[in-house]
Design a protein that fits this description.
The chain is mainly alpha-helical. The chain folds into two domains: 31 residues; 98 residues, Cytochrome c-like domain (Cytochrome Bc1 Complex, Chain D, domain 2, Orthogonal Bundle). It has six helices and no strands. The radius of gyration is 23 Å and the shape is globular. The relative contact order is 0.16. Bound molecules: heme C.
Amino acid sequence: MRGPARHPMRRRWRAAGVVMALALGGWAAGGARAAIELLDPLTDEPLALDKRPDQTTTPAVEEFLETGKNPYAGDEAAIAAGKKLYARWCQACHLADGSGRIGPRLNDDQWKYPRVATDQGKFEIIYAGGAGAMQAFGDRLDHDEILELVAFLDTLAKP
Ligand code: HEC
């Protein structure tokens, strides 16, 4: 007789172990996809990335959504692309050097929105907009382009 292994209680425990392993595996997989929670700058409510659903999610965007850090920080090609986007979409209000006109100064470390000091906060305000003239750009720019812009903004900031 093999004894303990065939005991019905043990079988039940083994089954419970399998269920637990599956549940933990599912949790870990889900966690890897949505590690950061983006917030709306004005309301602090969770921000859905539902604008321009047809866009391609690049590896940089995937990494950003996991870590909250901009993988393009310091990347010269991304900064050059961000500079072009800034000239087209942003500098009428913030000026080429970020010294500010209709929009506030972006080339120091003083932020109206404390979260804007971080990569994630910059992404949030560009994607979702702020008050008044600071519109949401999420319906015109891809997530990847927003990361390029954030990399460029870092080159303006001179605390
Ligand atoms: C039509 C004018 C206008 C344009 C265009 C514009 N902004 Fe703004 N921006 C503003 C205003 C006004 C504010 C202040 C918003 C507020 O107080 O909520 C602001 C706020 C910001 C802030 C937050 C500053 C802080 O101190 O917290 C950032 C970052 C920013 N803008 C970046 C951008 C970028 C990047 C673009 C281009 C994609 C852009 N803006 C385009 C007017 C503009």
